[in-house]
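Late entry, written up from scratch paper. The run itself happened at the end of the previous shift, but nothing got recorded in the book at the time, so transcribing now.
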Amino acid sequence: MNEKGGWVYIMTNRPHGVLYVGGTADLIRRVAQHRIGEIDGFTRKYGLKSLVYFERHEAILAAIARESALKKWPRRWKVQLITKDNFEWADLYGGIV
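Output as recorded:
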């Protein structure tokens, strides 16, 4: 069986603001949905439009497992993950479209 790869990502509303960890098979489409507020829920409620972290996984099941693990991490670990490669909390969306 061929598994489609997946992505794990983190959205925020501002540097060191509210964080959302998500997973998807189509990162560009999913982040675009968050940015325009297309999907009702947490990201829309808190205005989370900035993509500050993402990682690719070859298998969607690996992405799902990683997303689940990250959601259980303490906030400070998530902040460290973001700032390791994105110290200024820049919106990374422009670099993937």
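The mean pLDDT is 95.
(Scratch paper discarded after transcription.)
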